[in-house]
Design brief:
It is an enzyme of class 1 (oxidoreductase). This protein has 16 helices and ten strands. Helix 6 links the parallel strand 4 and strand 5. Bound molecules: ligand FNR.
Length: 378
């Protein structure tokens, strides 16, 4: 980890250490990847105003997220299959987040179950929910999140229809999963990864296994899961979730002002401006492009969170300047996990915090609540 200086280094190491099918699953986007690219290109197009001779000796990244203290305006986003990037990946990522003093969000599509994580970490974590067709199962999942004392529910609303990632099909990351000689040879060339994953607690979807009969049959489990995405989902379902989840609710996957205004009526405390990291609607705008208008429209009614394309502390600063109160990262920490487990995730968080502190200093800012569009060059 000593020679790792940026998130790109973690990505390169992840790529070397983890089988191609899982690296690509993490790295790639849907269809022509226009939105995936736009997330980065639009971010990099935003330039800062350099300010000099301002006393920046008291810089501090601490803030609050959903009313709770956080050491920085950063959240680990829900990322599916973390346990395939590194054995017990969800537990390692959660521990790294808690040690750094920021929230971790567990995906519905995790390898470890809610209970596996709850038994392995000190503090509450957030749980991300996909509302599937089997509402009895979803109700049960929410009860499990309540029993595990999850401190927020992140309801993801942009996966009613599933965008296609060409790389996943080519790599056999399909339902059912496809095996090939080249895939097996690739696995065999990464023995450290194989033994790490085999030592992990579960090798299926931990939150779903147990619900589906014969879950030892991976094909069956994958097929059931894929058949459960509900194209009829609508705002009434959000009301239903609200009625059975008593805690803080975050609606994730908003890109449109009208949808943001609708979300503000649900009683949810926060929304995440997100295009699912360029993995869903290809051709949708970058998240950073739509952030200012959404923050203007509902920023006084809900906490605005942001994700999509954050690879540095500079990017966090850009999103805060354009109206976000905090940022989620997905790939940035998943690369860290693939590169080096918990230490790799800790490294990703540390890199971003240090870059944020430096950027604040060079823009003449000491506190997170001082960051607004004055730090942006027009
Ligand atoms: C995701 N994302 C995601 N979101 C969600 O709500 N539930 C999930 O299970 C997943 N799974 C998932 C897997 C992988 C491999 C990635 C990269 C992303 C989306 C994620 O929460 C977040 O919105 C994006 O990752 C943000 O973009 P960046 O930070 O990856 O550019």
């Amino acid at each position: 980890m000593k020679h790792i200086t940026c998130i790109d280094d973690l990505r390169a190491l992840h790529k070397r250490r983890v089988p191609k099918a899982f690296f690509d699953y993490c790295d790639r986007g849907s269809y022509a990847e226009e939105t995936l690219r736009a997330n980065r290109e639009d971010m990099q197009a935003i330039k800062f105003r350099q300010r000099i001779l301002v006393d920046v000796s008291k810089r501090d990244t601490s803030t609050t997220i959903l009313g709770e203290p956080s050491t920085m305006p950063l959240i680990l986003a829900p990322v599916g299959l973390l346990g395939m990037q590194h054995g017990d990946g969800e537990i390692h990522a959660c521990r790294a987040a808690q040690a750094a003093g920021i929230p971790f969000t567990q995906s519905t599509m995790s390898i470890c179950s809610i209970e596996d994580i709850a038994a392995s970490v000190e503090k509450p974590f957030w749980f991300q929910l996909y509302v599937m067709k089997d509402r009895g199962f979803i109700k049960d999942l929410i009860q499990r999140a309540i029993a595990a004392k999850c401190s927020a529910l992140v309801l993801t609303v942009d996966l009613q229809v599933i965008g296609q990632r060409h790389a996943d099909i080519k790599n056999g990351m399909t339902v059912p999963p496809e095996w090939s000689l080249s895939k097996l040879l690739d696995f065999a060339s990464k023995p450290a990864w194989v033994s790490g994953v085999l030592q992990g607690k579960r090798r299926t979807f931990g939150n779903i296994a147990g619900h589906v009969k014969n879950t030892e049959d991976l094909n069956r489990l994958a097929e059931w899961t894929a058949s459960q995405f509900d194209t009829s989902l609508n705002w009434k379902d959000v009301e239903w979730v609200r009625s059975i989840w008593p805690g803080k609710l975050v609606i994730k996957g908003i890109l449109d002002v009208e949808d943001a205004e609708e979300a503000a009526k649900t009683g949810a405390q926060a929304l995440v401006v997100s295009n699912h990291g360029g993995r869903q609607l290809d051709g949708a705008p970058s998240s950073i492009e739509v952030l200012p208008e959404i923050a203007d429209a509902v920023g006084d009614k809900m906490e605005i969170m942001f994700d999509g394309g954050i690879r540095s502390g500079q990017d966090v600063m850009r999103a805060l300047a354009l109206g976000a109160k905090s940022c989620m990262i997905g790939r940035a920490y998943a690369y860290g996990l693939g590169a080096g487990g918990q230490a790799g995730v800790a490294k990703a968080i540390d890199i971003i915090q240090k870059e944020l502190l430096t950027t604040m200093g060079l823009c003449g800012v000491n506190r997170i609540d001082e960051i607004d569009d004055h730090v942006i060059a027009v």
